[in-house]
Each structure stands twice: as C-alpha cells, then as structure tokens.
Amino acid sequence: MSDPGPRNGLRFQVLGPLRAWRDGTELDLGPAKQRVVLAALLLHANKPVNLGQLADAVWDAAPARAVNLLQRHVSGLRRVLEPHRVPREPSRVLAWTGTGYLLAVPDGRLDLLTCEHQAERARAARAAGDLPGAARALRCAVRMWRGRLCEGLTGPLLEAERDRLAERRLDLLEERIEADLALGADPDLVGELRRLVGAHPLRERLHGLLMHALYRSGRQAEALRTYQEARRLLDEELGVEPGPELRRVHERILAADAALGPPAAPLGTTAAAAVRPARLLPPDVTGFVGRREQLAQLDRLLEEGEAPSAPAICVIVGTAGVGKTALAVHWAHRAGEAFPDGQLYADLRGYGPQRPVTPGEALAGLLTALGVRRPDVPARLEERAARYRGELAGRRMLVVLDNAATAAQVRPLLPGGPDCRVIVTSRDSLAGLVVLHGAHRLTVDRLPADEAAALLRDLIGERARAEPKAVGRLARQCARLPLALRVAAERATAHPYHGLPVLVAELADLRRRLDLLDAGGDPGAAVRTVFSWSYRHLPPDTARAFRLLALHPGPDLEPQVAAALTGTAPETARRLLEALARAHLLQPTATGRYGMHDLLRAYAAELAAAHDAPAASPGTPATACDR
User: Is Transcription there in the keyword field (predicted)?
Assistant: First the structure.
C-alpha cells in the first residue's frame, strides 16, 4: 500500500496500527516481537534506548537469550528500514550510541511527534491570544489518532503507554472543544460531546463542556438537566459530589453569566464570519467500492502541509468515466469533521455539454457561499480572487474543484494560506499545478478485476452473486471502467427477468457495445458521449493520431508503430503519444509502450471510420478481452 505522505524518506505511525513507509511504499515490519521493538524505539524517538529498557518493553520476564534476540530484531529492522545499507556500515537510521539504540526520526515523520508539536503550537497560540490558531493546531493534533496506540501489539510498555496516551488524547480533545466553544456556538459540538460523555461518563470536564455547549445553543434547561444527571452518576458510582469546576459551570448557567454566551463579532469582521459553515458537497456516491490506497493518500491531506504558507493540493486525474469525482466527493464526505469551517464545491464544467465555468464565475459563486452578499462581490477577477483568499484566511476548509480543464482555470481559486485543503479533479494532468504550486498528483486507474466485480454485485444484487462467471465477463466487457459498469448494472436491473448471460451476449459485439452502454436521457450516463468530451479538447493532429491508433490490433504499441500508423516522423509520433497520455486517452506502460482500453479503442475506431476512410476499416479491431 502506498503512503499518502511525502514521497521521500521514512514515515512512521504509532497512533493506531503500527505502520511505516519508505519513499511512499508501506513496509513489512516483520514478526510481532520485532514490531514491539520498533514501537519502543519510536516511543523514545531520537533518544537512546538501552537493552534493559527494550527487554522490559517486549517481555514481562526476559528470557536468558534476551540480548541475542533483541539484537536479531534490531538487525531485522535495519534490513527493513535501510535495505541498501552496506553490511557492517554504521546505520544512519537505527544507530548504536554506546549506551543504547537510537532511532532517528526527522520532524513531521512520526504522528506522535507531530501531535505533540501541534499541541505545543496550540499552547503558544493561546498564550499569544490567537484562539483560532490554537483551535486549528489542536484539531491537527487530535487528527493524528487513527486508533489505539500500536493497535494489535502487546507488551508491558505498550499497555502502560496506551493508558497514558489515551488520557493525553482526551485532554487534547477537551482543549480543542473548549477552544471551539470560546470561538462561538456550534450545534455539532453537542452531538460530539454527548458521544464523549457516553464513552467517559465519570469525566467531569466533559460534562461541563456539554453543559456549556447546550447553553450556548440556547438549551438552558437541557444544560441544567445534564448537571443533575452528572451529579447523580457521580454519587451512585463514586459516592462523591461534583468537583468545583463542574459546580462553577452550573452556577454560571443559573446566573445567566454573560461570559458563557457567544462573543460579539469583533469590529471589522465580515458577514461571512457569522454565517453557518458552507457545506456545498453533492451527495455521496451510492455503492462506492475499493480505492483504499487512493483514500489513504487523500487522508494525508489532513496533516499539516509541508510549506508553512501554502495550502495542500491534491490533483486527482484519470481517464473519462474512471470515477475521479466519485472518489473526491466520497472522501470529502468521509473527512467532513476535519473541516469545521465548511466544504466548498464547484463544478468547473471543463469537460461536458456546457461551456466551462470561468474563474470569475466560479469565484462569484464561492464568495456567495462564504457569506459575501452579491452586491459586495468585486467586479474584477483579481479583486474577486483577493477577496476570496481573504475570506478563507484562518479558516479550516476543504475546497473541491471538480472537472477542471486547465491549470489556468483553477489557479485563481486556490486559497492563500496553509489552513485549507484543495482537491482538483481533471482528465488533464494539470502539470502547472504540480510544478508551480506543489500539488500532489493522484492518478486514478480503472478498477482492479475484483473491485469491478464487487461493484457489479453491489449494484445488481443477488442475481450477480449467483452468476460469478457472468459478472467477471461483464466487468471485462466494461473494461473495468466504473461508469460503464454502472450503466451495465442499470441495464441488468431494468430487465430483472433476463439472466446476466443475456446481457453479456448483447455486449459481446464490440461494434455495438457503446450503443448499449448508454443509459438514455442523460449525456453523463452515456459512455460514448463522455468520451467525446475528452476528444473534442484535442488539437487536430492529436485527434487524428487518437483515431488512427485504434487500427492497431494489439493492447498496446511502441512509438515506432504509432509513427507508421499516423504517417509521421518518430519524434512527432512520440510527442502525439505523450499528448494523448496527458489527456488520459492513452496509458503509458513501464516498457515505454502505450495502451488504450477496449471501450476507448472502440470509440476511436468509430471516429476513424467516419473521418479517415479509406485508410480506416469500418470494422472494429479485435481486442484481447474478446479473443
């Protein structure tokens, strides 16, 4: 599995299952005891850990051969973490200091250290009177947790550290909620606090925060009732009365203390600051399947960006119908709690039946969503972009820019600071965003065979589960392309009394397949139409090359073959192939060849027959899937 973080060096996770990545690839950390040794070293990262401490971490009672066993585990870890280290050369990652083993972990490469760094930033921000900054840092700290410490591993040290860090996490959660309350009422806090109180019923501070949140939401009676429930619980379970802090919250609510109420908006605050957080996402996709690796890469967006003054940007790219928007929207819904200030969404219509949205039009819509009144939206593009960046400053928001055509269309819509996260989807590679703005490119390929079959089973239901061979054949006929799979599933469910082999037989003729993969009535649900939106963006010479490449009968081809098919010089053919790959109408392979999936080839062959006769044959070439 790929690491969604920086693509160089080592990265470790202990706040959840123990995991490690090197240069973006997840590592096999070996047997359980070796993993416990690594966990102990990470819990003391950048500090020497002597053999006695390691033995105590691994065993309740160390065996006679403990030192030899520990040295063997350390050697195993060195092979995993530094596979290219020359034997007997000193380790730069896991070094012997003379008094113990030291695991060197740079800043930002261990979630536990990142959490503590963010907690320290929060303390400094609070001391400086920067409450929004403190709240943001605390949210970053809490998001480092993905489960219990080194979940699944056992050992004396881990058991003790689990309790300590679980308490630490609760402390940070309480501090974060306290900061959020100080910034103003949020209805979502009540639900979150009720869940926390249910999980930790004897924690008085949580009861007090719940009372405060209820009072802030105009629910004074519920706040007072919460106090009585907490008082009864403490008496029944512990035989004690509430402590002074909880009693003080109760007394302030009874007295309608003005300090408990939401603060007045500071002078100069825009109207946008007072509006409810914008939640503009379209509905989540039904039957979302797989994409675990891509979702994990998007999860890394939630960590603080490497550049302190720039937003983290992920560009999701891929061919038509592959599910770029579905992935972006599904992840955005899943990560909603990480963006308390809202989620913006704009369909830029880069590919489709309508003209693309201009940056100025998109900015007008986004500013309105942020609470800026329409008469106050500036007229000039530069002024709109500046106002937009100003409205986003200091807010933790997600911006989803869907279906972009070019980097120029996206650039004015990028936030100015590091607190926001941006997802852009496009059929183009958007190299300009990668080169000039440090965007991470996430390429979405067609589904693996097992996930394509799983999607069909989810969409069709029991009939698909009863006919696995037909499902596998149907997935191949749809080129494992999510859009085609969904259209085929719709055809299957529209004719519930026909067996799936009937649909498979209908789709067997590649020349008719695109006709059948059309749900009718909606151009976005017709595979041929969706392909056409990519084709019409191509320059004439690239479009001609796309058509003629369909004449090649194999699944992929070399640049020399492309030159022969297009009648161009090898250098020109290579340029055309690269242009088609950037548009995701061809897929480069590791061997320097270029491939085109069956449905795209069928579409290109149709175009060739219509535009390039007599050079093109009207028949569609056979494909590997149909042989």
Answer: yes
